[in-house]
Amino acid sequence: VLSNPTNGARLGPGTVATVTIEEPGTPGSFQFLTATHQVDEGDGFIEISVTRTNGDIGDVSVLVETLAGGTATPGEDYTPVMQTLTFPHRDSTTQTVQVPILDDLDPEPTEQFSLGLSLPSESATIGTPSQTDVNIIDNDLNIIRFAQTNQTVSESSGLVNLSVIMDSPRSSPVVVDFAVSGQANLGDDFN
């Protein structure tokens, strides 16, 4: 603060200056919150969390992107992402990246893809885990059922055809047991 000038000098605007003294620190490091994630194929998306730890000095950013490889197919099972997350000075909160998950009608085993962290800005670093694996759990069950659940036939017709269908046919054979139950008697009402 400037005050009491001498020899005819006068004070003008700007007589107060503010100085901020920052504590020494580092920009920190980036890492995924967890190393693995699980998502149902029908959920539509998954949110992946990235944290800034061990420092919060400066505006820093990190690139999050899907990695090549894995058993999930880009464009069929998920939509690849490439997104830069920016953390402002003194911000060490968690930020998220949303990855679209694509639903299909194919019965399939659990499929996997990965995301990685790279290109930290300033002198920020990449911590651990720097990669996270996402497991997509299939929601396409092989549902087997009768085509018609109620049929009426005459006792004298001799035959009844009961069709069994599977909602999601597979290329490999599927076997299902069936049994006859109810009030009809084997030998008297049917053979």
List the helices and strands and how they pair.
Blueprint: E1 29-32, E2 36-40, E3 45-53, E4 60-66, E5 82-87, E6 95-100, E7 111-118, E8 125-126, E9 131-137, E10 144-146, E11 164-166
Parallel strand pairs: 1-8, 2-9
Antiparallel strand pairs: 1-3, 3-6, 4-5, 4-7, 7-9, 10-11
Question: What does this protein look like?
Answer:
- This protein has 191 residues and is an all-beta fold.
- 0% of the residues lie in helices and 31% in strands.
- The protein has no helices and eleven strands.
- The strands form three sheets. The chain has a five-stranded mixed sheet with strand order 2-9-7-4-5, with no helix packed on it. It has a four-stranded mixed sheet with strand order 6-3-1-8, with no helix packed on it.
- It is rod-shaped and about 130 Å long.
- The mean pLDDT is 88.
> Which regions contain 5 or more consecutive residues with pLDDT less than 50?
none
Write down the secondary-structure element order.
Answer: EEEEEEEEEEE
Chain-averaged pLDDT: 88
Q: What is the SS-derived class?
A: mainly beta
Beta-strand fraction estimate:
25-35%
- In angstroms, what separates the terminal alpha carbons? 107 Å
Could you give the count of β-strands?
Answer: 11
Q: What is the molecular shape?
A: rod-shaped
**Widest beta sheet: strand line-up:** 2-9-7-4-5
Treating each run of at least 4 consecutive H or I residues as one helix, how many helices?
A: 0
> Largest sheet at a glance?
5 strands, mixed
Helix share, percent: under 10%
Radius of gyration, in Å, reads 33 Å
